[in-house]
């Protein structure tokens, strides 16, 4: 039990929810702005806004890691990657040189491949299937 009397799992869950909420708010703002200011398809604006959000979350996580602070949970990064932020994940890892240790690299590469396969299927169904 912590000083507040709440178990550690509660604090961890609350922190995951804070990081997720931050990502959802950023995505919603970007999605609304792009939807009302462009004529792009909804799917493209969805992927673009989630990719920008995922990129921001990777940058935030890297800056927190450098400052030795509490970091963005990996499950949040994976969630945003699978929902459509796969481009942001790939660019964020390259730009920030983040999550590149051997153990982390394997997990994040598998998640990237799963997200790309999932969204390739969605693109096929939306635009090419008859």
Helix content percent band: over 70%
Q: What structural category characterises the helix and strand content?
A: mainly alpha
Helical segment tally?
A: 4
Mean pLDDT: 87
Q: How far from one another are the termini? A: 57 Å
Radius of gyration: 16 Å
Low-confidence stretches: none
Count of discrete domains: 1
The general outline is globular
Note the run of SSEs as H and E: HHHH
Number of strands: 0
Largest sheet: none
Strand content: under 5%
What report would you give on this structure?
This protein is mainly alpha-helical and 130 residues long. The chain has one domain (8-128). It is built from four helices and no strands. The chain has helices at 8-37, 42-66, 74-96, 102-128. Helix 1 packs across helix 2 (42-66), helix 2 (42-66) crosses helix 3 and helix 3 (74-96) crosses helix 4.
Provide a compact summary of the structure.
The protein is mainly α and 130 residues long.
């Amino acid at each position: 039990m912590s000083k507040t009397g709440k178990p550690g799992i509660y604090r961890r869950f609350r922190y995951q929810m804070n990081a997720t909420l931050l990502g959802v708010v950023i995505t919603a703002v970007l999605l609304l702005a792009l939807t009302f200011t462009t004529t792009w398809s909804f799917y493209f604006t969805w992927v673009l806004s989630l990719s920008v959000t995922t990129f921001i979350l990777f940058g935030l996580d890297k800056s927190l890691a450098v400052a030795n602070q509490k970091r963005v949970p990996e499950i949040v990064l994976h969630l945003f990657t699978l929902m459509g932020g796969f481009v942001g994940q790939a660019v964020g890892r390259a730009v920030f040189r983040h999550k590149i240790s051997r153990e982390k690299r394997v997990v994040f590469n598998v998640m990237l491949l799963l997200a790309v396969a999932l969204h390739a299927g969605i693109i096929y169904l939306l635009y090419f299937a008859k």
